[in-house]
## 1
Amino acid sequence: MILVLSNEEIEQVFTIDECLRALEPAFLDLGNGKAGIIPRQDLLVPGPLEGSYHGFKTFSGSIPRLGVTALRINSDIVTWPIVSGVQRRVKAPLAMGSKYVGLVFLFSTRTGELLAMFPDGFIQAMRVGVTNALSAKYLSRPESSVLAVYGSGWQAKPALLAMCAVRPIKEVRVYSPKKENREGFAKEMDKKVDAKVYAVSSPELAAKGADIVALTTNSLGPFFPAEWIHDGMHITTVRFSEMNLEALLRCDLIVVAGRQQAQLLTLPGEEEKIPEFGIGDYGRDELKGTKADWRDKPELAEIMVGKRKGRENESDVTCILNFIGLGIQFAAAGARIYELAKEKGLGKEIPTEWFCQDVHP
Amino acid sequence: MILVLSNEEIEQVFTIDECLRALEPAFLDLGNGKAGIIPRQDLLVPGPLEGSYHGFKTFSGSIPRLGVTALRINSDIVTWPIVSGVQRRVKAPLAMGSKYVGLVFLFSTRTGELLAMFPDGFIQAMRVGVTNALSAKYLSRPESSVLAVYGSGWQAKPALLAMCAVRPIKEVRVYSPKKENREGFAKEMDKKVDAKVYAVSSPELAAKGADIVALTTNSLGPFFPAEWIHDGMHITTVRFSEMNLEALLRCDLIVVAGRQQAQLLTLPGEEEKIPEFGIGDYGRDELKGTKADWRDKPELAEIMVGKRKGRENESDVTCILNFIGLGIQFAAAGARIYELAKEKGLGKEIPTEWFCQDVHP
């Protein structure tokens, strides 16, 4: 039977600790040439709303050790409004009136069978936060105890929890432009971790003296300048538009989640209408040829297995540009979720037969 | 509700004529920049059998006019045995003990919703045959009446039917190495078309005087030589390993289904073990820089909309190298199948809600 799970069911079994235990060996496999990926590709065609696009995104990853290949799909109605003077990517929830569509399909490398299908939402944010926490585990100073979190949205929570799981964090400052958001978030998170979590009213204040900075915003324009960076800091991003060129040049070591850029495809003539062709995740022409050029930077997996050098000095500023998803994140998380859900009898079942055929394809 | 269909249900509603009516405008959309694709990518990792790989293949296509994006997935256990001295790609049916896994997922570009899921088997062969028939409609001589079909497998039948639908075919010669196969196939097909269909005992005989040649084999080595080609012939292939370099050079016009090659990915050190890295669908180094180099060849869609020149003389030998699948084939076929299945009340239903979420992905 094929297991169909919901975000709520996944949340019941899949904790930050489970995710860390799943993703760390998956990145080690990748670094050791024992796991593989199909890079992300996005196809954007005109959508139903004024200036909107249907964004269809796929990428995959295979971990033979776990016997799984995962495919992650997003089928979004994408818009790019200007919010508080900053351009953002916002997805319009048009499925069933007000929902989003992001899915993970888990296949067996041993039989080819489809094993499970589930929404990507819960895992999505968690694997970004956990990947960035893994970067902190391998790149930040071991005694790092002060964390600054920028953003209070869906990426902020797992980022904060995962950082507290890999480093002895005592103090967390939260900055987000809206007062009620940062304060609500800080209050909520203060109950969940041993560290003291509090909101700060200026973004500069959050970074001051912080050992680790977690940028978890959906800003398509840079907001974290070089002046806020000090020696020994480790900075994590969720898109590489968050830091400006000067800030990136301030870093002694820049690491990327994956060196391969997303391939963005659209119809002829639509290119200039899509902001992300110019900025955001897809390219930063200004970086090319500079010390901040991502194309020759080590990948996190290479650092983790020791193929490329990590932090060399206490005073080094290290940074991960986590601008690209990797299928192995969903394969590793998916395999463990599948195992846990089976153990607990969670989810709905659909006959495997519906997704098999006699025809040699 | 999400519709889940079987190959048998699709076969009930989706005829060669329906497929031609669906694919022709889809290729015109593509040629006119009104449809888009994500190119094929294959990820191969070591599989469960000696020398086998799990081959995970994805590609997508979007047709805004129809409001759909289709994703096609294959999750195969792939092997490469030598059959009668020729290396072939053979998929091992290990799903549920003896089945294959090839799937199409149909999404709405208007809401993002998953609309339908179905196996790819029935459409798979049909869209190849129909695409090649479209090449014949636009490239062969209009009075073409003699067809030669090489192969009697799952690609041969739709190829033969589709050719008879686009040209006034009176005579079909079938060649396949095994006597019982070619004779059984010819007998079966003779009942289905107005043309006289018969088997021939030598491969050379089939081509003699043929107006259109349909190569529908899974041979990874060339078997159709230049000497069998004569003026005015149109040749269709299902993989571009079927003709040798000399045969390709004999063609006045080579057209490709898509110029973009499949991207073949595997783990470090596995490359040399996978025959298709060297031959077959993925590359023919010998062609590079020759007149037969596929990289500068017109695409079928470009020919169809008149952006690139087609046949110029009666005596021209034309050829389509249909070595790459395009997502728009599955999008166009899928949209029509979805419509027909809904009309007839076919298929099983799964709640759309299971494949949506509240979480901003």
## 2
Amino acid sequence: MAKEIERKFLVRGNGWRGMVPAKHYCQGYLSTIKERTVRVRCCGNEAWLTIKSTTQGITRTEFEYPIPPDEARYMIQHLAEQPIIEKYRYCIPLNGLVWEIDEFLGANQGLIVAEVELNHAQDEIILPEWIGEEVSDDPRYYNSNLVSKPFSQW
Amino acid sequence: MAKEIERKFLVRGNGWRGMVPAKHYCQGYLSTIKERTVRVRCCGNEAWLTIKSTTQGITRTEFEYPIPPDEARYMIQHLAEQPIIEKYRYCIPLNGLVWEIDEFLGANQGLIVAEVELNHAQDEIILPEWIGEEVSDDPRYYNSNLVSKPFSQW
């Protein structure tokens, strides 16, 4: 069990590109209700099952378990709500933090967001120049909500 | 991944009691929609996260992963739909099969069902004398449905 404290921002420009290689993420949701989400995620030869609680402010409780990738792929394809979420993730270390930039594909193409995980909700952070508007409080940007209302339909 | 082929029956009388010790099961659901269920189950010092697909006839696809019991207990208490399911389970081997008798507690007290897992949907089975009406096709008896509509409210 972990407490996840995250802030999320839109990304502007391309100043972040070329700094780190991309990882391809493919994920589906077995539950997307607001009380709890259940996510199956694949990245290369690894996969995880992740349960997250309701968001309270920018804090969530999270449980994550590694699972066999072939089982994850079966669940994403056959059990998860459709459409699935596909994205490239770029993990950029800066000033002691790691910025995770998600460049979405498929039904969410065009959406690029950056998340940063904090130790405490009040931690001050230095914003890179490619960081735009904060969207931490906007539920439209939850990955679980990008299934039922993908960016292309906004 | 496993294919689960199960038949379920009501239990009549007490002829099955005293044959094997009871195990206490405590379980909660993170998803109970008909397309898929996500269950967290605790039994003693063991716990599992289980995903099951839609039932097709008496067959379901099932994925089960052991998880730390303290995390399971947290999820059952704080994340799962309420009320949770509590029951005693008795596993009785008979004629090459294992009958799992579930004696429900709490909001489902009074309900006792027996399940038997088969290799093939058409397998013939010898019914013990304490087996009553078959309820394999009755969704009211799905454990996931006993959360929203417990036996005491039928």
